[in-house]
Sequence to fold (384 residues):
Amino acid sequence: MLVLAPNAADTLHPEQNPLRITRIMSRPVQARISLAALRHNYLVARKHVAGVGKPARAWAVVKADAYGHGLLRTASVLADVADGFALLDLEAAVALRDAGFRQPILLLEGFFDADDLTACAEYSLIPTVHRLEQLQMIRAAALPLRLPIYLKLNTGMNRLGFTPAQLPAVKQELAVSSAIGMVTLMSHFAEADGGRGIAWQMERFAQMSAGWNCPVSLANSAAILRHPQTAHDWVRPGIMLYGGSPFADEDAANFDLLPVMTLHSRILAVQEIAAGERVGYGGLFEAERPTRVGIVACGYADGYPRHAPSGTPILVAGERTETVGRVSMDMLACDLTDLPQAQVGSPVVLWGEGLPADEVAAAAGTVSYELFCALARRVPVIEV
Fold:
């Protein structure tokens, strides 16, 4: 099958490529994005918090190019259902506005200097504020409107946010500033996916937010699924939108989440090796029996984790088997000994439909977030 390689023509100077002809590639590795699954997963998030008090609205977290799934693609799929979009980069937020999206847009890390505030006002962006200096910059900016903010409270994550000791100064700054519009209180759970849970942070948040009459946003994907009582006014589903589980001990399918990205390729060669022979750089895999080795057109330059060890699950011709040897830049190897039907050209799923990304990630000692975000630009993306 012939596939158009994305952005290939951009590697040539216009004088060298006056017709902007896109290079043709026949290499079979592709990422297939299920638009229906993406939309389904957002609605699952909404469903989980729908019956808890007043219905919470849900930010679709689209940071890091929508976890590698494509910012504009993801936003377009969710355009008629998403209550708002949450991301990090000011440039990406402006791109959403320029593309016509009118939902609220939240900047999860806020702004980095005073110059960003003009764009926040012009493009109706809501910055997260986590340092007193940011409040002072807003007051000094002379903006044409009162800027709504998310005020981040540090309840134990210890990355960003105000501590209890800093809150008196925050309240004083808000009292003298006429530049701040609606304030929403937010925090972030550190262990909503673990045994410690969320009760300790909820207790701290209750103490810190006492006396504030503001909307609240707390719940990430893990809290939405296991602790829906934390929903409040706004929730922030992230990995669950893309079909990944936030839990190491529970599959995404148990929550009715569907895989959105399927990375697939084909077998490009088959080697027959004897017992005692080795495979790949460093000879990390040694065959214990006569072995059929399939070579897959996918490697770490495509986004597959180089540190994935022998034994990482892979799907060949619809059947599960395992990788063998070290992952190369453009290829990896798998065991076809017990799959006589697998031949050159047989389809391969690296992760996605039929093979959860969470399972592949666990074998590689990482999380599905990293797999999705690491998808290389050279891999063509097909929408289905």
User: Anything to note?
Assistant: Residues 154 and 163 are 5 Å apart (CA to CA).
